[in-house]
Write a structure and sequence with these properties.
The structure holds two protein chains of two kinds. Chain A is mainly beta. Chain A contains one helix and six strands; from the N terminus they run βαβββββ. In chain B, 37% of the residues are buried. Classes of the chains: A mainly beta, B mainly alpha.
């Protein structure tokens, strides 16, 4: 499975035809097809290309909302956005 | 725009532009839900479907009321609505509550309804969290809407048999929590 650094992840921001990826708990998800990630942003607060591990603690939903999306990689060496 | 009202909210530490974006997204969710619920309601037929029609109709009308009360607050805070309806639809805070592939599947319709309400409950909880103790007017409004969305969720959830029933259909007028903003 592909490994991403946080810098590499940040490139997947849905601009210029790139897909929209986000990370959670070390896994990288492709959310390009999600209605709620249209425009590469989610609920006015989150952008594609971000590690959402910390943000999820404050979200009004749990990580189960990412479960339906394809996992396209992992964050390198367990690196996290703290 | 209510200039001082916005300034007070900013001074309290609220990111007003983010709040406005959330209010517009939730206003879009309410109006699009009103539209999609119109279709769902029309398809609630037969012995099972007809028993749901009344609460689907109340939820539909109350969601439209939520749109109506959100709009003035958006303008008070200096925001605006998109000029294009397609853009407005596509920035909704919740996915479209589309009619299921099999429109005779009442349970599938019920699941669409409950998921739409759950999305709304999450959205207004977030707005309440963001504004509590800081933006009193938006908080009061979001809390009133949240109260109605929680009741909608409960109605549909109980029809799904997810737990004992603690809620009953509206007696009297719709929007008992939001009506003070509609006057």
């Amino acid at each position: 499975m592909r490994e991403f650094t946080l810098q590499e992840l940040a490139r997947f921001d849905a601009r210029d035809g790139r897909p929209a990826y986000v990370a959670y708990n070390g896994r990288v998800y492709d959310v390009s097809e999600s209605f709620l990630w249209r425009g590469a942003r989610h609920q006015a607060m989150h952008r594609a290309g971000e590690d959402l591990t910390e943000a999820m603690r404050l979200a009004p939903h749990g990580p189960e909302f990412l479960e339906g999306f394809p996992i396209v990689g992992v964050i390198k060496g367990g690196e996290r956005d703290a | 725009m209510a200039k001082v009202a916005r300034e007070m909210v900013e001074r309290a530490g609220v990111d007003v532009d983010t709040l406005l974006e959330l209010l517009v997204k939730n206003a879009a969710a309410e109006l699009t839900t009103y539209y999609y619920y119109t279709i769902l309601r029309a398809n609630l037929i037969g012995l099972q479907g007809e028993s749901l029609k009344e609460i689907a109709e109340v939820a539909r009308v109350e969601d439209r009321n939520h749109f109506e009360v959100l709009v003035p607050r958006i303008y008070e805070l200096g925001g605006r609505l998109p000029g294009d309806m397609v853009e407005f639809h596509n920035l909704s805070a919740c996915p479209p509550a589309r009619l299921p592939e099999d429109p005779t599947d009442v349970m599938a319709i019920l699941k669409v309804l409950v998921e739409a309400e759950r999305c709304a409950v999450r959205g207004y909880t977030q707005i309440c969290d963001m504004t509590a103790g800081k933006d009193h007017r938006t908080y009061d409004l979001a809390l009133a809407i949240l109260n109605e969305e929680i009741e909608h969720e409960s109605w549909f959830s109980e029809f799904l048999g997810e737990g004992p029933s603690g809620h009953f259909m509206r007696r009297g007028e719709t929007s008992p929590f939001v009506s003070k903003f509609l006057r």
